[in-house]
Design goal:
Oligomer: homodimer
Strand order of the largest sheet of chain A: 1-8-3-6
Helix content of chain A: 40-55%
CATH superfamily of chain A: Jelly Rolls
Number of helices of chain A: 10
Order of helices and strands of chain A: HHHEEEEEEHEEHHHHHH
Distance between the termini of chain A: 55 Å
Number of strands of chain A: 8
Shape of chain A: globular
CATH topology of chain A: Jelly Rolls
Structural class of chain A: alpha+beta
Largest sheet of chain A: 4 strands, antiparallel
CATH class of chain A: Mainly Beta
Largest interface: A-B, 29 and 28 residues
Chain lengths: 218, 218
DNA sequence: AAAAAACGTTGACAAATGTCAACGGAAAAG
DNA sequence: CTTTTCCGTTGACATTTGTCAACGTTTTTT
């Protein structure tokens, strides 16, 4: 069930994982998907869904996507932490996204348009993903109609979140943006070092350090 | 054809418009939709589509959506210019979007989630729109399956554009962001005054004025 | 036509943020 | 265990951007 055999043959063979963990991982995906679905997926639908994904592990610092490549996979983080960033003319990295368990990673633009990506995506911690290719993704949409609604719901949530972040970036001070991030995604602050959080907020690590100091005093 | 009678009865009776203009407007929407569609819509599909939209005119400064309301309509701008903004605790307006012909307006979050909007949307110029309610929109998706792909394509483009703007906002200086806007959407600079452009970029009108002066000297 | 409002610019100054350099502690590598 | 790298903080100073006020011009309203 749940394509355990297939998984095994696909070679996700990190010694940490055994067959029971595979089951757990796909149950994780299942509960996640059902959360965004009008009606729960049937066992059969879920069978199809799970066979479309492949497990993949990334060592810390290993690339999921490198600038110039076309983004061929979307990944769902089962365990770990991943960052997405661009590098400017001066070699400075600008963090575009920080992602942990339960989040999707990949460059939407490159994935949809099949153009080379301007971003890098790499693992900040050792990370386990479930990945899907564009072809399998489109096949999945065909064979499991309920996926359309699920994907749409995910896309809507993503669009809303991006819009909110953009609004905050334009309207709020660094201090307020940090407070907002801290209240909304406190876990990110614990999983990533401050210089990455700073870059994510669009400020330097020194400024973030001072902002935090001020907010402690209050 | 194209529901001209319906339009008339819906009361879009600005003296400027006559029956030929209605036709033109829907042809406009048709060519726009076809641009994002795999296969052109049939006449019949387009008949259904056009009956789902209602024409609506806004006078300059008239609200399309006010903070606290649920966004019940999405609007396609046929002619005119519209701004979307939030107002902070100090009463300062922060421009979230500036839109002209061929663009959609509405607050996605409120529209999808049926929650009160935190934004205001009003007409900067006298504006003609084609609007659709959520119910009609969902009905349209049901009765014209090709719309799913079209909407998805539009959503994807929107998501990519928002992501780009966010990346720019975090990574680039005010000067670079202005140059980017000027090269990408030169028309916006001519349709909206500088203090709105400045707010859209997340800077003050004085800073924008100085940025422009510097860029002329170069 | 006159008055009012909106708009863009400029100057002086204040505040926020960036840059560079240095330091010490923590974590990772050997 | 030792060495190296990474990380967060701090200080001094530079740069960018914001704030406030004033001014002239254009546009809108009356």
């Amino acid at each position: 069930m749940y394509n355990v055999l297939l998984l095994y043959h696909n070679g996700w063979q990190s010694p940490v994982y055994n067959i029971f963990v595979y089951l757990h991982v796909f149950e994780y995906l299942r509960s996640y998907i059902n959360r965004y679905s009008a009606a729960p997926l049937t066992d059969q639908e879920f069978e199809i869904l799970s066979s479309a994904f492949q497990p993949r592990s990334l060592r810390k610092k290993q690339y999921f996507l490198q600038e110039g490549e076309v983004c061929k996979y979307m990944g769902f983080i089962v365990k770990g932490a991943v960052r997405q960033y661009s590098v400017d003319d001066k070699g400075v990295e600008h963090i575009v996204n920080l992602s942990i368990e339960n989040w999707w990673v990949g460059d939407r633009e490159s994935w949809v348009m099949l153009t080379p990506s301007v971003y890098n995506i790499d693992a900040w911690e050792d990370t386990d993903l479930l990945v899907i290719t564009r072809a399998d993704f489109l096949g999945l949409l065909d064979s499991v109609p309920a996926m359309h609604g699920i994907i749409k719901s995910l896309d809507e949530k993503h669009a809303i979140a991006t819009q909110k972040r953009l609004t905050a970036s334009i309207s709020f001070s660094a201090e307020k943006r940090y407070a907002d991030l801290a209240s909304r995604y406190p876990e990110l602050l614990q999983r990533f070092p401050q210089h990455l959080i700073a870059s994510y907020l669009g400020i330097t690590k020194e400024t973030l350090s001072r902002v935090r100091q001020r907010s402690v005093k209050k």
